[in-house]
Amino acid sequence: MDHRTRVNSRRATVMIYTVVIMTVLMGMGVFAVDVGRILLSKSQLQDAADAAARYAASGMANSSTPQATAQAHALAAIGDCKIEGAALNSSHLTTTVGTWNALTNVFTATTTNPNAVKVDLTYRFTSGNGRPPLFLNVIAPSQQPLVHASVVTKVAATASTFSPPASGNLWLSGMPAGTLTKNFRNDNSTVWDYAGTSELMRQSPLPLQLSSMNLSEGDALSFEGLSGTASYVAGATNSADGDSGFVVSIGQTRPNSVPTNNLNGIANVRAPIGAVMAVFLNDDSPTSGSTPSCLDFASASQRNYSSISPQLKQVFFVGDGKKSDGTVQKIIVPPGATRVCIGMMDAWQWNDNIGNFSFKVYGSPVVTTVR
């Protein structure tokens, strides 16, 4: 073999080795990228599961329907989460309520008096996601990798059950027994209301001392677990959300705008008739001091708040205590508040309202991740 042949042979061998080595290196690089993508997705999925489990537990603690509420809260929590640009949804989520045994560190699924929530999130890399792992798609196209994240959170919250009467006129909150409220209707004494006593409430709303529920300013409380029936007129019933087609304020039916007047130092409000409403007070008479602005709950979006921070003497909408997606609404106790009064929305004449809604008032839940 002459010199030229030997050189060409060596070049061919080097070329072959180069191609093989480059192929191996490229394969290793692609594999490393795939593994990095999977690890990143796993981390993102774990973050989403942590958030979902904590939000699910906080919702469950403030609900009489723990499984449904936990699922709604977990789904809401992952609503903005994405894995490699793909949005997470209910198909990736499993929410289970149960009990956590701190002695054995064991979670047991049950809907009876649950104190914990387990959230599982899964994400599979498939061609349906638009970007399956390249190397793994070549060597195992039928077995695309699945990433999984699981979190268990434990929760504790205080709850008290109350049954405010439908005849409770919020604008008699904190007023002494015998106080007459004409409800801006000086022309008709039959629509006037009177404050009562704890034994005979007449048209006084139900007052709750915040200290009795271990609540103070800055805490979040929730009203939920509503049952019973009530009505702003005899012969009919309405839900705790009221009649959305019939918006009123005190002294007006179907007002075109938010009212600006007040009664007994308590701000007016625009809301559906028959809705459960509330107002925070301090220990002083509501007639003392300035009156805050009037709130507006005429539209569904205004009533569909996640959290609200009303001022003292500012009547606000409670309804059934949940948003339209099933998540529990939070109400922040304002500075100086010592009590909250609960009643029902009407334009005038609370004295002919009938029935009551029974519900639970929940304090701020304490959520702990346990696994």
Cα end-to-end separation: 72 Å
Which residue ranges are poorly predicted, with pLDDT under 50 across at least 5 consecutive positions?
Answer: 138-142
CATH architecture of the largest domain: Sandwich
Question: How many strands, what sense, and barrel or not for the largest sheet?
Answer: 5 strands, antiparallel
> What's the domain count?
2
Q: Give the % helix.
A: 10-25%
Find the CATH topology of the largest domain.
Jelly Rolls
Supply the CATH superfamily name of the largest domain: Galactose-binding lectin
Alpha plus pi helix count? 4
CATH C-level label of the largest domain: Mainly Beta
Strands, count = 26
Question: What fraction of residues sit in β-strands?
Answer: 25-35%
Q: Judging from the principal axes of the Cα atoms, what is the shape?
A: elongated
**Which sequence of strands runs across the widest sheet?**
4-3-5-6-26
- Mean pLDDT figure: 84
SS class: alpha+beta
Order of helices and strands: HHEEEEEHEEEEEEEEEEEEEEHEEEEEEE
Q: What radius of gyration results from the CA coordinates? A: 30 Å
